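ping. complex inputs:
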Amino acid sequence: MDVGFIGLGHMGQAMARTLLKAGHRVTVYNRTHSKEAALAADGANIAARPSDVCHGDALITMLSDDAAVEDMVLGSGHILAALDPNTVHISMSTISVALSERLAEAHEKADKVYVAAPVLGRPEAAASGQLFILAAGPSPAIAFCQPLLEAMGQKTFVLDERQPVANLAKLAGNFLIASMLESLGETMALVRKSGMDPHRFVDIITNSLFAAPAYKTYGTIIADEKYDPPGFTMSLALKDMRLVLAAADATAVPMPVASVLRDHLLAGVAQGEGHTDWSRLAQLSARRAGLTPH
Amino acid sequence: MDVGFIGLGHMGQAMARTLLKAGHRVTVYNRTHSKEAALAADGANIAARPSDVCHGDALITMLSDDAAVEDMVLGSGHILAALDPNTVHISMSTISVALSERLAEAHEKADKVYVAAPVLGRPEAAASGQLFILAAGPSPAIAFCQPLLEAMGQKTFVLDERQPVANLAKLAGNFLIASMLESLGETMALVRKSGMDPHRFVDIITNSLFAAPAYKTYGTIIADEKYDPPGFTMSLALKDMRLVLAAADATAVPMPVASVLRDHLLAGVAQGEGHTDWSRLAQLSARRAGLTPH
Amino acid sequence: MDVGFIGLGHMGQAMARTLLKAGHRVTVYNRTHSKEAALAADGANIAARPSDVCHGDALITMLSDDAAVEDMVLGSGHILAALDPNTVHISMSTISVALSERLAEAHEKADKVYVAAPVLGRPEAAASGQLFILAAGPSPAIAFCQPLLEAMGQKTFVLDERQPVANLAKLAGNFLIASMLESLGETMALVRKSGMDPHRFVDIITNSLFAAPAYKTYGTIIADEKYDPPGFTMSLALKDMRLVLAAADATAVPMPVASVLRDHLLAGVAQGEGHTDWSRLAQLSARRAGLTPH
Amino acid sequence: MDVGFIGLGHMGQAMARTLLKAGHRVTVYNRTHSKEAALAADGANIAARPSDVCHGDALITMLSDDAAVEDMVLGSGHILAALDPNTVHISMSTISVALSERLAEAHEKADKVYVAAPVLGRPEAAASGQLFILAAGPSPAIAFCQPLLEAMGQKTFVLDERQPVANLAKLAGNFLIASMLESLGETMALVRKSGMDPHRFVDIITNSLFAAPAYKTYGTIIADEKYDPPGFTMSLALKDMRLVLAAADATAVPMPVASVLRDHLLAGVAQGEGHTDWSRLAQLSARRAGLTPH
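pong. complex structure:
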């Protein structure tokens, strides 16, 4: 298929590359043009302006936050205006439920096609096309884009006709991971200070009740205290917890653990560690307990 | 093997029965004698006094809390005194790290053999011999008792020579489950108030990052709002969170999520729901969010 | 002095009336015109449009939230454009630090005079001219408006040339009161369930370490369980905790107690009690503890 | 009056001295005898054994914690047995509600007279006889001891015939102070990072809503960042929060702010600051926010 791709951060680059590998024709645009060269070497076309990528089968946007998406789609990027009515806009960024609602309204009013398809997975998963994709929007549009989603993900979950539902599910998923990191972190501090081997503990739980990828990946990172390189930073996690709490506030749902997470991530950022991996929540637990890193 | 078994609560009954099924000779004792009859029908012998079950290959104790274990072993039950030096005492109750330390000292001083082997799993798992067993103590004693542990569990993790390590691991495991329940509960309240189908959400997470038994079992319970019959009560969970916080206090480890759990479980108990399943933590989240049960 | 007054909620009405009593000429404007009649009976002039009150010695705005202030000053109310360069705009609303920063920039750019002067105190204090006023902005402008501030408050604290400092101080003050309410509420639930007389307890603390107006007023309300009529609602308190947390987020300051307050107030709102007094935080504590109101 | 005094810590020494100044005959006992010399210089008699101070008008015990009190009164100190039936035992230590209940029962069973009279106030207040005393027990006994209480305190609050009520009130009072410290600490971190003068902020709140001794004393300490010398340590505050939470647990009262305090104090202790003043809760807030001490 013919696809435009805007946003070449860690995740975006990897995702665009899997599209190329799967044989799709990809035209990329990135605000900072330096990032486009690597993709061009892999066969991507480079666009000079956002409006140049709005006329294929689909346009994928994968940007860092609400402000970037809003500016690109509704503001200075003029995507909404430039979008061909036959081009499906697949918004894969992690954004607020409220912005997704505004995007849904704006696309509908302009007779443009909007699919929300945020993803679960770290950059490694993006590079190998092993993401989980949470899709919502008009069924025919999702069906039409399926070859693209299949190239990027190991599995696509179709959720709802209403696009914001996918964004909520993504945020809820990130909250569950973050709360797992916090609980693991608190536990591992206790385990270490009690003189028990943290690797043995991870071994036990991931071979009994918590035999899940998330526990295995992060349990090992925390037991090893090998948090680098960052796959998803504390700053981004803080941004997502803000979005979770905003969605919870809008629907009047108290989420005490989300508040704890927000406070801890904010402490991490305040202490200069915003650029490190969010699994360092465990290191913050260790530090509060007076433990020093190995 | 020849084994004594003290404590016929939900878990204990089921465990004793799996021993009988596996062909072991089991003599049971329970303070309330009414519970012994059902086991006798399955082939168990009944003992009149605790001291009568202290002379086989092993003695298993599976009691409700620290007070019960302390009284049985060191107090009015006189187990420690009555125990044959060749009979391995396998303590499978969920008890505090501090009591396990005292038991270790007392057994050593009296030249008796003490193995700590608390379990992870609900009564259904106990009934089908599918528990996970966390064992710590003298290696030869654990090896000797292996046929018994194999009858009761699907897997035995041998942790350490020091018995209290197993008790800590068990408490840490329960903390991880409880914090998962809390996080799921907060998330599902958000999901429901946002108009997303909670079953669909559980479906997604348990088929992506959290493909683990604990998430599947409890995610379904919470989405269905079918919390009965209780497998593990809020009161018992509160007891365990107290023990987690006590171990954390003794080693100076702040555990904010454990504190949140303690407060919520205490609220459940205060509101008359201590006898219900701990997965009702999710119902407490729903209620705080103004949702009413279906 | 000649003063315009926009915003006739509970607080605004009472404040405008103290200005009239002190002999100032007051012209009022309120979006809902029904509220103006009572003030007219006390001698106020009524303006048809916001722009009609922008030409005296000062213009006071006392609106409910950021959205209302932003719309009135920078949006559909056109206050900034209509404001006479010699008319001091005194913004007494409780607004975010971020909006106050935007207002400061906008006024400066337009060569208009902006003083931030939010207040501490309940409607009764407003009615009797006993508010505490936290003022920040250009010193000459504050000095010029002193007769107005004196009419409304028992004391004016001049804080800084930078207006947002006053808004921050106001929010911080409200946080301190809210956290006192939460702590008192938790304590009083404990006191009641322990069989101690709550009035006696309030009597003791307010005659020893906490001999302060806030503890006396609210301690009595909570001991009496007489929360009505509301002086400041849970919904408004929730709004303010959001603003506190937003200011804390912007400066990277974790505030765990503010998070607890936000969660509890959100629960109050979710349970249909947003319109009741924020001292009902104590009732939420009592309810969590299984107590029923007298 | 003729009074025995056991326990010469910071508080006890100061209290015994005010009794001497008021003309009472005081006989002191302390486990570590080195502390008795200073009191002897001021006119106190020194006792060799605890039982030697059990025969005057009253015996005051002022010990560090539950374990010390239990051992002194019911254990190796043999106070209960040695106490003359006409000697009133005034227990001024901060102890658990549960221990006070056991002491009440034990004294009653032995026909001995027990008054609980814990105090509010720092060592400076103890030195100048300016403590607040919370007394509970048999009315005639409290009346009889009034001259002693008057020498040590500026005010005696008589609460109840049931002694544990006084211990609960004392713990509740300490919780209120600790939660004030936490709220002030969080606020001051926000104030400092927002560029507002912390002294000015303390000045405002203590001259408006919070014109109370506790806010003045601690607000100034926190604004000055002059936490030394410690008047009441983090370790002791942690002990008291444990007792508050234990009383709350026993009566099923969730106290989320008490949990936050426990976690923060535990972090302070874990990080090696248990011996410093509990007002350093504010420094922990500052540190979490990335601020460094001046």
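The CA atoms of residues 176 and 258 of chain D lie 9 Å apart.
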